[in-house]
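Why does this matter for the project? Reviewers at the last site visit asked to see concrete outputs rather than summary tables. In response, this paragraph embeds two records directly. Each consists of the residue sequence and, immediately after it, the corresponding structure tokens. Nothing has been edited or filtered.
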Amino acid sequence: MTSYKRVIQQNDKVINSLVEFSGLERWLVQNIVQYANQMPKVKGGEVDLLIFTAQMSRQFDINATHVIQIMYETIKRISKTKVMMVEDYARCVCMFLSDDLDLQIDYAFAVYDTKCDGLVKVGDMSTLLKVCVLSTDPNDETEAEDSLRDLEDFVLKIIENVSKEGLRLEAFRKLVKQNRLYLELFGQCFPSDKFKLRYKLNYSLPET
């Protein structure tokens, strides 16, 4: 009984922490945590890359494996852990659904800052931009290369208007607050609004 009570208390602690972190309603966070606790995991409760990839694809229609791997490593880096646990996964989902733009800016910048040096350059993100282009038209290689060059030129102009060296976090924050579309300036790292809404509907208020 004591053990069960401890589990409940720990679960409540996680839920309270995620509510404070995301600003989401408690019932929604409860459902997110409940799903995260019930989904497949490897021994020890770890959410490995394979499970994370499957969840991102099925729940949020994020399918580019290279991008998902960067997201996975970023979430572990933010959590300062060597493995992703249930709470880390639930925190990621809460961040996706949150209305806190600053929270999402911090996450997006961390994804794009692949060298972990606090600076994002177009060259650093060429792979993500390429994935973005190929997902639009994967069959026409020549057209994809032209589109990639156009996209890189577009992004470069945006960055150079701010700084010649690249984007640091606060410069990126300022850009996104001027135009929210710039949140995914270097490629997808969030689900679409359609899939966020679908997720919320799937985990809507329980019947009382």
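We now turn to the second protein, recorded in exactly the same manner.
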Amino acid sequence: MFNVKTVAIALIVSISSFSSHAAMTYGFGNNSCGQWTKERASKSMNSRYQEVWVLGFITGTGLVLEASGKAQKVTDSDAAMAYIDNYCRENPLSSIMEASQMLVFELMPSKSYNQ
């Protein structure tokens, strides 16, 4: 059985081999920030699915960062959703993936941006 660290390292190696290609986004990450804002306002089931997608993205990124020796600041889901709400309100044409990436960058200590 593989441990989490081994899988994360394998993921990093496989991702780095495709660094010249754009990353593929699956699921609700493809939705626009405009769609995020609309779904959140109506408190729809899709809103819940989008929230889960964002939290999974943050968690997965945190695991990859940890495996590469970098840290991610800890936050709670309410704060994460507030960040995405604000970002999407200001950038309705961006995707939920882009908003999530910006949140992850915000959670990274400044010293690990260029390492």
